[in-house]
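Box S2. Input/output pair 1.
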Amino acid sequence: MNWNKNNNDNNPWGPGGNNPWGGNNSNNMDFEDSFKKAKERFGKFRVGGPRNISILILLAILVWLASGFYRVEPDEQGIELLFGKWNGSTTNPGLHYFFPTPIGKTITPKVEEIRKINIGFRTASDLGYSAASNAERDVDRESLMLTGDQNIADVRFTVLYKIKDAGNFLFKLRNPETTVKDMSESVMREVVGQRDLQFLLTEGRQEVEQVVRNQLQDILDSYESGILVQSIQLQSVDPPDQVIDAFDEVQRARQDKERLVNEANTYLNKIVPNARGEAAKLVESARAYKEQVVKQAEGVAQNFVDVYNSYKGAEDVTKRRIYLETLREVLEGKNKIILDDSGNGQGVVPYLPLNELKNRNTN
């Protein structure tokens, strides 16, 4: 029943305003009119209407298409799968778009994380223990290797690698970690088998690490594994435990040998220079003597030539000079007695004081 402001007689509260909500009758009519109009307007928007269903479908499609946006972090690579199959490409860090689910799917694995594989031994983390534990177990079937000189070496090493191409890593290898482990062990056995045990124990560590890394990387690249080998770290290279005592004895013998060789080389380095010095001294003395003798012989020969030339120029004078020089050499420094043999026939016997001359020579 409607009441209006002109029909006060029909008001159940009577004229004058016995309305329990207060106010007059005109305010009640305004409220009812507003409520009616709002109901009419709301009734026009019905879920079951064709227009409203289209709007909802459109919104749902927009939300579904927007779900195709995905973000790749700096340490990740994006992998796009179309109906579950990899499309063959990887996306770099940043915001990208691909078909949303269920048509497409994206995977963003971490590629900067350094992964580690221990070969020849297992650490606490490999065995499932806490990181604080020092538990370690040897794996002889992986570590024992034959060297080039037919010895056995216990080689334990670690392979450090990371993902270079996430797509190849996930879809080109069935089990990447197992592949890396098996290939690393195979390459290490080949390299160790080409070198002597003594070389591996001493100066060959860095060379072996570098050669194994290069060969392993070549093999993984040929498999299109999408793996980058960071480094090969040799943890230990030792003889087997069964022969360690004999090996230590051999090492001590080699050390003694090296010590004796070094002492002999020291003595050699001391004696040889001295001997070379003496030899050089003798050679120089011989050369000096040679020069002296040669010069003297040349002088004597030149003197003879000069005398001969003088003789050829004045034979009489030269003969007399030679005669006088010879007499001087013969008679010089001796007691001489000169007898005059002219005698004039007087028959005088000359007196020779031989005793006095003998005593004079003795004194």
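Box S3. Input/output pair 2.
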Amino acid sequence: MGFSMDILKKFGIETDDESIYLMAFTHGSYGAKYDLDYNYERLEFLGDSVLSVIVSEYLYNKYPEFEEGKLTKIRANYVCQNALIFYSHELGLIENLRFSEDEGHLTESEVLSITADIFESFLGAVFIDQGMDFAKKFVSDNIFKFIDEERVFFRDYKSAIKEYGDANEVEIEYKILQELGVPHDKLFVISIWIDGKEMGVGKGKNKKEAEQAAAKIASDRLKLVF
């Protein structure tokens, strides 16, 4: 595993600034080990917004009859962590990660988070280096096909649980059990309580992900059908 210029050739990227792609694949652990003053986090932040804008525009044009709420739900399916993980593996991006083994054993949640991050950081680098038109073409060539085939990456378990609670007139409550890590690399552990009974505990890199994970467990226990 490690950065190779072949990944740029794969997507037809010609650049005068290889360093930005090197940055896109550099995890904080690698930067710390080799005393680098950069990692992929800023590019990840940028790529997240770029992906959201491109997918939003595509959905806006593809579904002119859909209201804002429905478009938001559809978009969530294609920009969620599960989708990003899939894109990262599908495109071979994760194989270019620069990561220090000195970081120690990673939890499953951390591995998934890093895999998702890499797609966003790479897209951020593409946007900075090649511009928005190229970024749109990259997403169009590699992501839009999954939208067109209506691939499911994300199920809104929280909404399903809320509907269950409303229908059965029971209270739904989420409680934060733990908040671990540093500000830029958090892990939340949250439990879901239904009618005063704990029905699941979920983990995620933000509260929404942890709540969804907890809601999924509760949905499975309640045998809710999607």
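Caption for Box S3: The longest strand covers residues 172-182. The radius of gyration is 19 Å.
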